[in-house]
Amino acid sequence: MNVRRLNFSRTLFLAFGGVLVLCSASGTAAVFIGADRLLGPSFSGANGLKCTTVQTARIKRDGTYWVRKYVTADNRADGMARVRTALRVARSVQAHEKADLVQVAVLDPAGPKDRALMRGRMIGAQVVYIPDLSKMPEGAASQTYTAYYLDGPASDTGEYYGIRFDLPLEDVQPMVAALTDDAGCIDPNAQPVTAADHGAPVTAHGEPVPGHEG
Description:
Elements: E1 14-15, E2 31-32, H1 35-39, E3 51-61, E4 64-73, H2 79-97, E5 101-107, E6 123-129, E7 145-150, E8 164-167, H3 169-177, E9 193-194, E10 202-203
Parallel strand pairs: 2-8, 3-9, 4-5
Antiparallel strand pairs: 1-10, 3-4, 5-6, 6-7, 7-8
């Protein structure tokens, strides 16, 4: 098995207030690995799963436009299918809204509907897509795509307890290139949450981005 280990203190991506970072009380470590090579192709195909939007937050700050979307997908799906779903939706959102940063979090249908609870182990997979890194604060983002998933299924309450796998960019890029569908998610409410007061953007480790503390 070919395993890559990276510096855990390295800033992987910029997200914004309340960024969804898996950080359990038990201290479970993120595992960096070439997931496609380890697990093989997802049973759900190159485009991921049908999904349903739970909430969407849009923020305009310092001349940039960010979109954060929470979606649910089939609770029987594997982790790689959830990642492919998030990649497809992130690309679709960016294409339609021309966002500078898109964050897509995939939850289990049994998970919470309150945005404040959509974090930690409630997230089965997450993708952050930054099409133009030059528009991000200096030092806050290092690559166009970052993605992770938890490999286990969700519990009856929508919590994931599998190992976290952070995918290297060289594995994410072929997955994006293989997408043949630009479908977003079904939105039963079609009433996005507009957020202007979620606080300053933070790094993947929950720390304020320099120069954006206030």
